[in-house]
Amino acid sequence: MFPAFVRSINDDLQKVEMRLLNLTTTVNHNLKKCQGCLLCICVCPKDAISRGPIGATARGDPVNPPLARILIDQNKCSFCGTCDVMCPYGALYLLINGEHKIQLVDEHALPTLKYEEKESPRLDFKARKYCEGEIKVNPEKCPGGCSTCALVCPMEAITIPKAEKGWERLPKTVVDKDKCILCGTCVAACPTEGAIEMHRTKVNYEGEFTEPFWPNIVKKLTTPLKSGISIKKQIELKE
Amino acid sequence: MQTDIEEEAQEVRVYRPRVNMRLCIGCGDCVVACPINKKGDLSIDKEKTILTIKNGALSIENAHLCDGCGICIEACLPKAIYIEFPYSEAK
After folding, report:
1. Chain B touched by A145 (CB under 8 Å)
2. Number of domains chain A contains
3. Smaller CB count within 10 Å for chain A: N or C?
């Protein structure tokens, strides 16, 4: 059947490919760069991306190593490149016949994002921050002891303080708001319902865009999110 | 307390935790470590429990609730637990 859709996962690349005559379009997902923030799930217009085991990927599975933080459905993907533009870590990229080219940007359907680049000791590249908003940790809901949020945070904004003296009572988690880029990795990875809440209030962009494609994406991005509940369902229910 | 939103919020997960019965020694470390087992107010709800020890070995129920944090893999000494990814219902 034409076109042919193929998905393959190897050690550091997940590849979704569409082949039609001499045209090969691929969405490449770099497993090493991807941090599992699930921002791509929020922005994907075709609902083609599913959540993978985020914490287990960060910890590493010795029995079944090729784990990925997201799974792209090759039959749902429309190869538009929205995830390529929006990914804060540059993990997703769209190639048409080997060239990096996004039609949505060329035709001004998506505006230019105004972002600041931030460095982190954990990353060997720079992460982009283009959202503004708030992040809140509810310590009374956190059962404690799993420390997945501190493990997965790519910017090292969440830390779990250790008491030096036995009688000290410290908060379970501390968020450094200057380091946080509001990607949402902690919200995606936290298994407890409502322990972390995040609300992106503003997306910084400039330039022209088309209605209603881009306003829909902004609306999805600015939905308040809670941990422990499916992000897809939270976005759908709010619409 | 369960609202309609919480009931609807079960998404189709693309991975499942699995246990290798040849290696499992039934120690129960993973049962204690799993954060879904002791959700919220530390009470145990049977419908929301993923890992239980039955007849001396680990049994996995409600696998669709697994959040994929990987604590059980780390806690397991004989490396009996692994995650199947990508998992498909059709298999």
Report:
1. yes
2. 1
3. N
